[in-house]
Write a structure and sequence with these properties.
The protein has 300 residues and is an alpha/beta fold. The protein has a single domain (3-291), classed as Aldolase class I (TIM Barrel, Alpha-Beta Barrel). Helix content is 30%, strand content 17%. The protein is built from nine helices and ten strands. It has helices at residues 48-51, 74-77, 87-99, 114-126, 143-148, 165-172, 177-192, 217-230, 261-273, and strands at residues 35-43, 56-61, 83-85, 105-108, 133-137, 155-158, 196-198, 201-211, 236-240, 279-280. α8 (217-230) packs parallel to α9 (261-273). The radius of gyration is 18 Å and the shape is globular.
Length: 300
């Protein structure tokens, strides 16, 4: 199958816009025929097993299937900045990141470019790409799309942002978020299993991220309960306290603030109490805009 033909009637994400991107049509995410990205860098601020000492080879793709009002990457996710590139260009970016010492290739917000990414990975691997490939996504995925990635992705790094449709609708305009995110995480686990680390660096496996939002501690608890009940305790959870109100968060006073230290510590303790002991926590001082990359098309 010519996987690029998937763009003729795009259903890569759960929105299933069915637009013909090969003819220049765009759907909800605004992605077109060509790959668009805004930065490629050695990223030092991912989880320790991803960044390590040399950094993760992060490629930040433009556009997004969601519309989070607090998105820290809103300039590329919702304002659509970035630079168009070919499959060959992307393959070259992967190789150059590896040559610079990247521990892995970190595909950030890749869903809407899966067909092109697969072709780029095929080309890059034929030219010597050998580091693990990470699929770093918002969790809003179609299982059919994920199945195309089997064998190409070594590490899945999805978010589970919300449990209830009320919050996913209000803050991300995605009413069916948890249905798809939960099904996607199960498929990801089937493909790569629990994390396998060598020398402190992840080589294969699933790490689930969850960002605590202000006032939504009960929502986070439900997500952790679901993980505990549906996945083995060996799974890794990355509990993030780094929320900073950005973009349109000021329009929602209840989330226009940082997460309290007390709430975050409670969530960490709860995670441990239900047997989710593997993974990572953050210092609440990580809630700073300084950790948001400058999306200046460098490295693209």
């Amino acid at each position: 199958m010519d996987i690029i033909k998937l763009l003729e009637k795009c259903e890569l994400c759960p929105r299933r816009c069915k637009v013909n991107r090969l003819k220049g049509e765009t759907g909800y995410c605004n992605a077109g025929k060509n790959i668009k990205a805004a930065k490629a860098m050695l990223h030092m601020w991912e989880e320790p097993c991803i960044s390590g000492q040399r950094g993760s080879g992060a490629v930040f793709f433009s556009n997004c299937s969601m519309a989070c009002v607090f998105c820290q990457n809103f300039g590329i996710s919702q304002k659509h900045s970035g630079k168009e590139m070919s499959v060959e260009d992307l393959a070259d970016v992967f190789i150059k990141l590896q040559e610079r010492g990247a521990n892995n290739i970190d595909l950030v917000s890749p869903t809407h470019y899966v067909p092109q990414i697969i072709e780029a990975l095929q080309l890059a691997k034929s030219n010597g790409l050998s580091v693990p490939v990470i699929y770093n996504s918002n969790g809003y995925e179609n299982i059919e799309t994920l199945k195309y990635l089997k064998g190409y992705i070594d590490v899945y790094l999805p978010d589970i942002k919300y449990f209830s449709s009320a919050y996913s609708t209000k803050y991300s305009k995605t009413p069916d978020y948890f249905k798809y995110a939960s099904e996607a995480v199960i498929e990801m686990f089937k493909q790569v299993g629990s994390p396998v680390l060598e020398g402190g660096l992840i080589k294969k496996g699933l790490i689930i991220r969850h960002l605590l939002l202000p006032g939504l501690l009960s929502e986070s608890k439900k997500i952790l309960d679901w993980i505990s009940q549906n996945l083995p305790k060996s799974i890794y959870i990355s509990l993030m306290s780094q929320y900073v109100p950005m973009y349109d968060a000021h329009k929602y006073p209840e989330i226009n603030k940082r997460v309290s230290q007390k709430s975050y510590e409670w969530l960490v303790d709860y995670s441990i109490s239900i047997g989710l002991e593997n993974g990572y926590t953050q210092d609440c001082n990580s809630a700073q805009t300084a950790y948001t990359p400058d999306f200046n098309n460098k490295g693209i």
